[in-house]
Amino acid sequence: MKEKDVISKPLNANSFPVDVLPDKLRKIINEAHATLGFPKDYLAGSMLTAMAAAVGNTHAVEHMDGWKEYVILFVALVGSPGSNKSHPLSFAMQPLIDFDAEQAALHTEALKRYNAAMELPPKERATNGYDLNPAEPIRKRFTMQDVTPEAVHRILSENPRGLCLVSDELAGWFKNFNRYNNGSESEFWMSVFNHKVAMSDRKSSQSGVFIKNPFLCVIGTIQPKVLGELAGNNRNANGFMERILYVMPSDQKKVKWNRDRKAPSFGIAAEWRSILGRLIDIAPKTTEHGDIEPEIVPFMPEALDRLFSWQNEVTERCNTDGSDTLTSIASKLEIYAVRFCLLLALADWACSGKKKKAVEVATVERAIRLTEYFRVTAAGVQGIVSEDSLTEIQAAVLSDLPDTFTTAEGVAIAAKNGMKERTFKKFLSDRRGVFFTRDNHGIYSKI
Asked: Alpha carbon of 293 to those of 56, 129, 213, 338: distances in Å?
């Protein structure tokens, strides 16, 4: 698919490319959709995030020398009330939550032993079967839910492999951002997204938190009407919004209950647990200092050629269009494309059980298709956010414009609504890819 076709593709024609996933995952998604009514988009997006969380810091790719990318995903399941977002998310995350429950039980017992040791004088600990200087046990985990910023920093520092923040209502995540001072939490999360050193110094903490290689995925549900709040506090201008992958099915209808619905024809939960368990069981390599040393999954030369040619095509298109919105979206999505290459390669390995191999051309092609899905949904989200912020004159002009129009026709319609020609052309340029697409030179269509 050419980039021009992708950018002009309407949201209602966009569906999650389930076929880019390994066959075993496709079968689970299709069966869950047919028997449980799970929207494929939500389940596929949730499963990708769960796999990314399980991989964590154990693997990375280098598409350029010295530039490592990890499978950190920020995902928003966008849907109207009753569109069945939460159940697919719970299904995908359940194996990670079960692992966390097992680790919580082990931690409780270890903590009891630690407390018992600390109650004894040092000289008596060894004679009673305890270490002389026991270390306080740390709870291993993959997931967090609705925690305070301080807790996020602490838990992440205790789990260097990585974590996933799972929030049934994503609004609870970003509403904490300005709890202390403007932008403090947004900056922390942008550092996490870039896998850069994250630091936190709070008066309420006994000591600051230093996280050398933060790995933290985020996933949650959000209603379209709340997207404006997500874009608030400058988050739609500082690149934060573009760091989020929006899963947004075109069909947002409430699902009816069906007493005649058949049970799954195979154990989809057990099959999913087996696949994700293979990723969970990865034993990370560590350095002499205890830091996780990622295994680098290499690109085949022809795979890198395809990745670079795609990025160049998108960049050329952005430079020609001159749309800041599309360029900002493209800048983050090209990072995600690299991450998808790694994630899909590891998903193939988890499903097949075969030896890991380099990223191939076919994997890059699948990653590109996945990326293009998210390009369309990102533009759709920008449309929702931008519509809420339209001035009265802009809304009137947008309403009066026909589905297809020339620049001259648009200028005339704008003038009738009190908008100057220069202002209209800037409006047309700024909202390209959001409200308008350019079909040809001087010819536009409304999305």
From this structure: 11, 34, 10, 19
Euclidean distance between CA atoms 390 and 399, whole angstroms? 11
Residue type (1 letter), 132? L
Successive 10-residue mean pLDDT values, the chain, 447 residues: 38 79 97 93 97 97 93 96 92 97 94 91 86 88 84 88 93 73 70 83 55 92 90 78 92 76 90 97 89 94 97 90 82 96 96 87 97 92 83 92 94 95 90 82 87
Dihedral of the CA atoms 334, 338, 340, 344 (nearest 10)?
Answer: 150
This prediction's pTM: 0.87
Which are the contacts of 38, defined by CB distance < 8 A and separation ≥ 6?
Answer: 29, 32, 84, 87, 88, 91
Task: Give the helix/strand (H/E) hosting 163.
Answer: strand 163-167
Distance between CA 155 and CA 146 in Å, rounded? 13
> What is the distance between the alpha carbons of residues 47 and 224, in angstroms, rounded to a whole number?
22
SS3 label, residue 285: strand
Q: Is CATH 1.10.10 correct for 392-446? A: yes
Task: List the chain domain ranges.
Answer: 3-388, 392-446
- How many whole angstroms separate alpha carbon 237 and alpha carbon 244? 14
Residues 6+ apart with CB under 8 A from 440: none
- Within 37-79, residue ranges assigned H as helices are 40-55
DSSP state of 359: B
Task: Rounding to the nearest 10 degrees, give the CA dihedral for residues 335, 336, 339, 343.
Answer: -170
Instruction: State the residue for tokens 């932008």.
Output: 183
User: What does DSSP say about strands 74-78 and 216-222: parallel, antiparallel, or unpaired?
Assistant: parallel
Taking each continuous run of H as one helix and of E as one strand, the counts in the chain are 16, 15
Q: Which residues pair with 78 in a beta bridge?
A: 222
Helices (H), 197-243: 227-230
C-beta atoms surrounding 70 within 10 Å: 25
Contact (Cβ atoms closer than 8 angstroms) between residue 7 and residue 375: yes
HSE, side-chain direction, 13 A CA sphere, residue 386: 21
d(CA 143, CA 218): 10
Polymer length of the chain: 447
Report the run of H or E that residue 77 belongs to, with start and end: strand 74-78
In angstroms, the CA 44 to CA 348 distance is: 15
Rounded to the nearest angstrom, the gap between the alpha carbon of residue 206 and the centroid of all alpha carbons in its chain is 32
Q: What is the phi/psi pair of residue 77, to 5°?
A: -90, 100
Structural fold of domain 3-388: Rossmann fold (3.40.50)
